Amino acid sequence: MLVEGIALGWVLIMLGAVLLLIEAYQPGFFIAVPATVLVILGVLLLLGVDILSSTWGLLAGVVAALVAASITVWAYGRLTPGKKPPTTLSRDSLLGLEGVVTKDVEAGTISGKVQIGSMEWSARTESGSIPTGKRVIVVHSEGVHIVVKEI
Questions:
Q1: Which residue, 39, 82, 97, 127, shows the most beta carbons closer than 10 Å to its own?
Q2: Other CB atoms closer than 10 Å to residue 112's CB: what's the count?
């Protein structure tokens, strides 16, 4: 059984290493946790711990796997970016945002322009016109433009 355990240990270590390489080149699949667990279990087998048939070996394997998984999840959380909202804007996320008219906005045309943050959007108003320089709020979006009203 010792020879099979050592061979299986190397197989688990190699499989874990391959998964870690995949995670390094394609981050976000979150396969670092099972990869780390496989490496730890492989090392236990190489050290002669019988995690396959011995009760104490199985218990040691489970505890080691849980500790390895916990540490990996903690480290993964420290390495990944914080939980900030996306920095990109789409027309659907503009509802309620304020901006400044950079080109007169008219009711019947989308030739008007509104600056929201660092982006300029084609805009129209539901009625009347809004001159350049006025502050506006987005009431909804249609197709490739936004509909605004003066604040």
A1: 39
A2: 25
Query: What is the spatial distance between Cα 134 and Cα 53, in angstroms, rounded to a whole number?
Result: 76
Q: Which of 38, 26, 24 lies closest to 68, judged by CA?
A: 38
pLDDT category at 73 given cuts 50, 70, 90 is confident
75 and 103 both lie in a single domain: no
pLDDT over 90 at 45, yes or no: no
User: Is 125 domain-assigned?
Assistant: yes
Model confidence at 30: pLDDT above 80 = no
Whether the Cβ atoms of residue 57 and residue 45 lie closer than 8 Å to each other: no
- Tell me the pTM: 0.48
- 129 and 65, same structural domain? no
Whether the CA torsion 26, 29, 33, 38 is positive or negative: it is: negative
Are 6 and 74 part of one and the same domain? yes
